[in-house]
Amino acid sequence: MLQLVAMLIATLKFMMRSGFLIFCWINFCFAQGQNVQIDLGPAEIGENQAWTIAITVNNDRLKSYDNFPDIEGLQKRGTSSSSQTSITNGQMTSSQSIIMTYVPTKQGVITIPSFKIKVNDQLYSVTGKKVKIGPPAQAQPDPSRNFFDRDTREDFFGRNAPEFVDVKEEALLALTTSKGEVYVGEGFTASLSFLVADNNRAPMQFHELGKQLADILKKLKPSNCWEENYNIESIEGEPIEINGKSYTQYKIYQATFFPLNNQQVVFPSVGLEMIKFKVAKNPSFFGQNRQEDFKTFYSKIKTVKVKELPPHPRRDAVAVGEYRLEESIAKNDLETGQSVGYDFTIIGEGNISGIEKPAIGLDNSFEIYEPNIKQNVNREVGRITGTKSFSYFIIPKEPGVFPLNRYFQWVFFNTRTKKYDTLQSNEVVTVQGNSQKNQAIESNDLGSFYDRLYTTDNTVKSITSANGLTLALNIFIFLILAVTVYLFFKK
């Protein structure tokens, strides 16, 4: 009985001493500088052995670290962590480590390239090395240890390594669309999200999201659609409810698509790899309580049906959406030959970038120049809205009263009414002054050649009349040739 009491007292003293040591270590860490050490595994291992990269932070807490590098010839098998505290000559030191374990995929010499890794927001450079992967190593029995080689912590807490279990996750990767059926040119919004149920107990975190997303979008983006990307820069959780169950939604990609033809839009299944931690079956205060692992979540195939627009002469050229018109003109009372500015602005929801300029009715009453174009596109709350303005310069050539709807009209398919609609001008201008429709021809200077038409003699003359000078010149040339021939044959 006395021995049992003595053992209990010793145990309590040890726990009090351990608690005191922990308290001192926590306070000491704030006073000590950070020392980061990155160690690579051995230069030679067997094919059945593990190789590691270890990050150790001395006298500080390991708050953050980058992803460990991918190495050709080695495959990641997860991370483990450890911590140590010791007192030497009254000085307390501590260390915390995170270790990535790799396993060989083949025998041979593997080159570990130099790499950089960020630890606690500081960047560290690591020099690479070569690792020889030999035949599988033979297992060696552990030699028995004497009493003085044993770790007293093992005697107190047990020698068995912690057992980790895989907790079933309540999460999924989902691709959703705002509409299941659209017309050609009608927009719909697609979102790729990672959903975590509120009752989930499996710890997870994103893993190399930028690199994965680039590969995902290559498979996901349809080739027969115009895309308006919402460019999500930061991923934040948003509470939602699906079928009466509460989730936190993490949107990783969102875009609005406008089909360019009547082919179905098919989004294939894509995978997102997440870090999922296994948890210790028997958590302890001092040991490692979770182990890093990986799991890939896959979305389901999603199809959006695309319908052809109703018959119309301009069916292949009209915009699709909900639009209205805003217009402005500098003044309505004009003089012939006097230019005026007119703005035709289309406002609404749809493919703003794909809006074409209005159809212009031309006659001799106005000269209308090509417009200056300005657009503004807004991407928010799963909708694409905006404006597109066409600014014209108009010069009236004829006096009179002119409704501008004769000249400016824009046809579109209204997705709300499911009918074609026309935006046309409501402005009316009054033009005064003399007609100037022929002024352009009269004002042109045709040049000096045409000016001579009024001063040149128009009497018909023959061009075959003899000329004495021409006859004399021909005789002279004949005599020169005759003399030349005579002198040539005389020799």
Describe this structure as you would to a colleague.
The longest helix has 30 residues. The N terminus is likely disordered. Strands 22, 24, 25, 26, 27, 28, 30 and 31 form an eight-stranded mixed sheet that branches. Strands 11, 13, 15, 16 and 17 form a five-stranded antiparallel sheet that branches. 16% of the residues lie in helices and 45% in strands. With 491 residues, the protein is an alpha+beta fold. The protein has four domains: 27 residues; 105 residues, Immunoglobulin-like; 137 residues; 123 residues, Immunoglobulin-like (Sandwich), CATH 2.60.40.
Which structural traits does this protein have?
single chain; 491 residues; alpha+beta; Immunoglobulin-like; 4 domains; 8-stranded mixed sheet; 5-stranded antiparallel sheet; disordered N terminus
Instruction: Count up the domains.
Output: 4
* Number of continuous helical runs: 6
Gyration radius (Cα, Å) is 43 Å
Alpha carbon gap, first and last residue:
160 Å
Strand content: over 45%
Low-confidence stretches: 1-33, 142-159, 441-445
* Secondary structural class: alpha+beta
* Morphology: flat
Number of β-strand runs: 32
Oligomeric description of these chains: single chain
> What is the typical, i.e. mean, pLDDT?
81
Helical content band: 10-25%
Largest sheet: 8 strands, mixed
